[in-house]
Amino acid sequence: MDNAVKNVESDEIRDKLEMIRVKSLRLAHRLGLTPSNDVVAQMLYRLGLAEQLQGGHADAFIFNRAWAMAEQLELAGQEPLDFSCTILVLGKSGVGKSATINSIFDQSMFGTDAFQAETNKVKDAVGSVNGIKVRVIDTPGLSPLWSDQQHNRKILHSVKRFIGKSPPDIVLYFDRLNMHDRDFVDMPLLQTINNAFGPSIWLNAIVVLTHAASAPPEGPNGAATNYNTYVNRRSAVVQRAIRQASQNVRLMNPVTLVENHSACTTNTVGQKVLPNGLVWKPYLLMLSFASKILDEANELLKSQNGAHGRPNIARPSRVPPLPYILISLLRSIPKLKLFHEQNVIGDQTLDDDLDESLNSDDELEYDELPPFKPLTRAQVAKLSKSLQKAYYDELEYREKLYMKKQLRDMKQWRMMKKWEDEAKELPSDHSNELMKETGGEAYNVVNLPIPASFNSDDPVHRYRFLDISNQLIAMPVQYSGSWDHDDGYAGVNMNTSFEVINKVPMSVTGQIKKDKKEALFTMEVTGSVKHDEKKETTLCFDVQPIERDIAYTLRSDTKFSNFRRNKATAGLSVTRIGDALTAGVKVEDKIMVSRRALVAMTGGATAYGGNVAYGGSLEATLRDEIFPLGRSITTMSFSMMKWYCGFASIWNAKSQIPIGRLTDLFGSLNLNNRGEGQVSIGLKSSEHPQLMLVGLVPLVSKLLTMFFRYSD
Would residue 533 count as lying in a domain? Predict the structure, then answer.
């Protein structure tokens, strides 16, 4: 009987969660957002976790049904939307709180002044935004100065009295994006807010940065800072200050951008668009509404499962990031080699498919060429242009033949090494016969004495190398974005390699990064086991921080080479983050279509509970006609990833074209599913040093700009 009652209660909870999901999608529909929006997708993902705790299963069918129901209700327009949101606005004086409220309602609710603060007492405004009831509580501006904190306490005390009977659903803390403050400038103000309302106020707060259309400042090299980088740095400063004021190192408040200036760029429907392409008004409102939706779901679960100590679903502290784990799974584990194999050229370079380029009947051997005397740069300069071209053509032809000779010798050496290893596994009689058949003969290398002084013509120096028995390598970790007069060293990285029973190469890498506030530790242990010539397994265990938790991942890659032109890889992974355990699988296949063309395909999936993230990539490479001697190479790739209520794809193209003996033209193009992309073109040359003078153009331009500015 008790089980039947519990089942009925669970069904009722799941039905209510379904209605909450439909309500959230109706809100998104009214704001003009799709389920693929970041805020909407994250909200639906967390609602799905809540349903899984009730024994349900939030799959794509349930999501599509909820979206169809939400669209139907909105198109019919008969059932009213039972939702309202109360927003409390806090922040420094003159940052644009009242102007943002006016922009939200698309009308002047409060007066604004560009030169002084207009709000001198707590007041609210109630209105409808796209059919959604919204109440916004505006407050007087606060001051970050120590001397003004008593005045701030009086203001916050009046705010507490105003919201006593009707507490807000969400708090918006305002600051300016173009206010280049350090971490501790706003600390007195943040601590006053923390003391007035308690640390819990920050658990339901969103950071709003106004003046988001302002131009980013110049970087150390005089060039404008990237907009996204500028926003991330400014957001990190505010978030870090709030964490320190609340003494909660795990706190990570969401950040959104706002621009109220009339000159801001707008889209076709008149909505203001930021430089990063974000339409800020629906994004801000949906972020505020999502907080109340998740609180509503959390209260629903507490009403049934409070006695069982169920975790908070509205803001789960340990939600595994499936896309990040999937990217780590699809990345190949570096192959390890034994110590005596580390100086050997890779298999791809000496593949059997290179016989065509190494054994050409229409070319002479390098040893068959007539004597050739290289000329100095001064001697070449005295030649005519036609003779210079003929000289460089001859030099390039000899270099190509010499590289072919080196590759051919290396391939022959590897073959002899293979025969030698096979001979060691046979009995002594068979070993001697095999050595005679292959023409092998064992001999001892004479240890020649080293001359007192270095002589480049002495062959002894050519075959000497430093034998280091200690394989431990330690190096500093440098942070490139450090301040002036700072060495930039943020930690230490250590790596060591060793062999187990002379057959299993192992590698251990660890890194420790420490600053004044936190320390980060990462570690990776890798080992390879070679089953035979065509099969090898690599295991990897790594520990690294992900968001606010530590991830422990065990991965394995097994490579097969059953066919001449095909190499396949199968991989598994298990990741533990907090109390969450995820599992993943991947398959990779490389096909050599011809000597020049190579196609690589990768696909994988990782799962946690009922949620699955899957993705893959396709890459095609076209190499030079005389690969590996030529420098021309073109690569095109397409990658995609799909997870619960989210999709991402990116297309890349890279090409390198030699346009001279020592000059290469290279370019790249990438484009994602959001319509964002990047194009880069570069020139690399060591025969035209005058190209370096192009780097002086921006420097001269900057100096001239500063000169005329000071002159005016």
Answer: no
